[in-house]
Specification:
The protein is an alpha+beta fold. Helix content is 37%, strand content 22%. Helix 2 packs antiparallel against helix 3. The structure holds N-hydroxy-L-asparagine (SD4).
Amino acid sequence: MNSRRSFLQNTLLGGLAAGTADFWARNLPVFDKPDKNAFPVVIATWGPNLKANAAAWEVLSKGGYALDAVEAGVRIPEADPLDTSVGYGGFPDRDGHVTLDACIMNEHGMAGSVSFLEHIMHPISVARLVMEKTPHVMLVGDGALQFALSQGFKKEDLLTEVAKKAWESWKIESKYKPIINVERHDTIGMVAIDSQQRIAGACTTSGAAFKMHGRVGDSPIIGAGMFVDNEVGGAASTGLGEMVLRTLGSFLVVEEMRRGAHPQKAAETAVKRIARKYAKLCEEAQVGFIAVDKRGRFGGFAIHPGFNYVVYQGGENKVYESASFLAK
Ligand code: SD4
């Protein structure tokens, strides 16, 4: 390259780099110093996920990696046949297929997701491999299954007797209507910050019970069911996915925190956005968000009463009842 051209290119690139650095210096959120007991921390949707939180804490308390923690955490309900809204034992769609959705995101903003995946007990681990081993973010359906099998996952029947019976009795009336807080241990969304302040998130579900075959909810969609940004914090959702998909709820929560909102307020803003836009639909649908920020502060909020979430911080694993937009 002639020297004049390379001088111009270097100057231009240098100028751009300096400009970019200035831009970021001016626009990054400024957080107070975190409390020294704030980290590690892990937050997850729904009270019964204390066990999942404990599995994540097991990793975090030994100085482990946030991404390993959230994967280990959400694998607990995925393998639990009694949890009828996640993984093995999840209620099937209206044709009797258990189809699973999951996503995961790391501190570098890299993400992996699978959706409409059948026969694999741990979709979260497949999502992680999509992130780590492919150039893509999302694989769906048979493509996701083929990828999982190529990575050594076992093909299994995930429809338990309990779930099959529930489906058979649902078929008698075949009414499709989401029921608010029906199980209180729905979809698990989890965000962890490790002792090096790396943030990761995961979300996994069998989706709405008796949904149409092929239906995908918010849970595997980065920014809808879950989102993390290492400069800011993370958020995850549970409830009627269509409402969260329409508003990219978890992304909104994180962006509110970026603008300085406390996680509690940020979760409230996302719920209120949904409530304002879809007031009528809100009468019959629940949506809840959890959020944690870079300082280790957290919060949760839902449309209806009855949502709760779990936080493991400072050596204590606790259930918090969420406040809600609508009263009882
Ligand atoms: C979905 N958001 O597929 C999920 C279901 C859920 O609590 O979270 N239920 O719409």
